[in-house]
C-alpha cells in the first residue's frame, strides 16, 4: 500500500515545487496588469475616472459596478440616510456597538497604540458610535466624518478627500475601507492627515457577502 502512494507523493512534490517557483512570476504579472497600474498611477486629487472598473486589492473586492464617482457618492448618501437603518443605528445598535468599540479601543490603549491625548478621527462613522466610544474611554478629542453629518459626533466629509489639513491626527480608525471606491485615495488621505508616527487602524471584513 505504501509503495503505491509513493509516486503520487513525489509527483505532488514536483507540482508543488513548480507552483512555488512560478508563484513570484505569477504575482509579478498580476501586479503589472493594466487595471492595477491604472489605480497605482491615479494622481492624488484626481478622483474622477471616467469609468470605474471592479477593483481587487489583495483579495479584497472593492465596490463593484459603479459608473461614476457621483453615482457612488449618491448611493452612499442614500444608504446613510435610509431612515429605517438610521433608526436601528441610534436605538437597537447604539449601546451594543459602543460597548464593542469601547472594548476594542481599551485594547488598543493597553497596547499603547492609543491614549487619552490622541487626537482621533473615525472615518465613515455614520452616526458616530465609535466616536462616542472613544470619548467614553477617555479619548476626548475625537471626531468622525461621513457624507452625512451627525452632530456633534460626526462632521461632513468624504474619505476620498478629507476636510482636514496635513498632519492633523494621532490616530485614525475606520471599518469602511472596503466601502471605498478608490482605495489608493482612501489610504493616501490617511497618510496625509496622520501626524508622523500616527497610528491608523483599519478593520476590514474579508470574505463577507456584499453589503
Ligand atoms: C463588476 O462586478 C459586477 C458584479 O460583481 C459584474 O456584474 C460586472 O460585470 C463587473 N464589471 C467589470 C467591468 O468587471
Ligand atoms: C437616491 O435616492 C433618491 C430619492 O430617494 C433617488 O431618486 C435616487 O435615484 C437615489 N440614487 C441612487 C444612486 O441610489
Ligand atoms: C484616561 O481617561 C479615562 C476616562 O476619563 C480615565 O479613567 C483614565 O484615568 C485616563 N488615563 C490617563 C492615563 O490619564
Ligand atoms: C499636504 O500633503 C500633500 C501630500 O503629502 C502634499 O502634496 C501637500 O503639498 C501638503 N500640503 C501642505 C499645505 O503642506
Automatic annotation (TrEMBL):
UniProt keyword annotations, A-Z: Membrane, Transmembrane, Transmembrane helix
InterPro entries: Methyltransf_11, SAM-dependent_MTases_sf
SUPFAM superfamilies: S-adenosyl-L-methionine-dependent methyltransferases (SSF53335)
Transmembrane feature ranges: 12-30
Pfam families linked to this entry: Methyltransf_11
CDD domains from the UniProt entry: AdoMet_MTases (cd02440)
Recorded GO MF terms: S-adenosylmethionine-dependent methyltransferase activity
Record-annotated Methyltransferase type domain positions: 121-202
Protein's name in the database: Methyltransferase type 11 domain-containing protein
Amino acid at each position: 500500500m505504501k509503495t503505491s502512494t509513493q509516486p503520487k507523493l513525489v509527483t505532488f512534490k514536483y507540482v508543488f515545487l513548480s507552483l512555488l517557483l512560478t508563484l513570484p512570476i505569477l504575482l509579478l504579472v498580476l501586479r503589472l496588469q493594466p487595471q492595477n497600474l491604472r489605480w497605482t498611477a491615479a494622481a492624488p486629487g484626481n478622483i474622477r475616472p471616467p469609468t470605474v472598473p471592479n477593483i481587487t486589492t489583495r483579495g479584497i473586492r472593492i465596490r463593484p459596478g459603479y459608473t461614476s464617482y457621483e453615482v457612488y457618492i449618491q448611493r452612499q448618501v442614500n444608504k446613510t440616510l435610509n431612515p429605517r437603518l438610521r433608526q436601528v443605528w441610534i436605538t437597537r445598535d447604539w449601546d451594543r456597538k459602543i460597548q464593542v468599540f469601547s472594548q476594542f479601543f481599551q485594547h488598543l490603549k493597553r497596547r499603547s497604540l492609543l491614549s487619552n491625548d490622541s487626537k482621533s478621527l473615525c472615518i465613515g462613522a455614520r452616526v458616530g458610535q465609535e466616536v462616542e466610544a472613544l470619548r467614553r474611554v477617555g479619548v476626548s478629542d475625537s471626531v468622525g466624518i461621513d457624507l452625512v453629518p451627525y452632530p456633534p459626533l460626526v462632521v461632513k466629509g468624504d474619505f476620498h478627500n478629507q476636510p482636514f489639513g496635513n498632519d492633523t491626527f494621532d490616530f485614525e480608525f475606520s471599518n469602511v475601507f472596503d466601502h471605498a471606491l478608490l482605495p489608493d485615495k482612501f489610504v493616501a488621505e490617511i497618510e496625509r492627515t496622520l501626524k508622523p508616527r500616527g497610528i491608523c487602524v483599519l478593520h476590514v471584513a474579508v470574505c463577507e457577502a456584499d453589503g
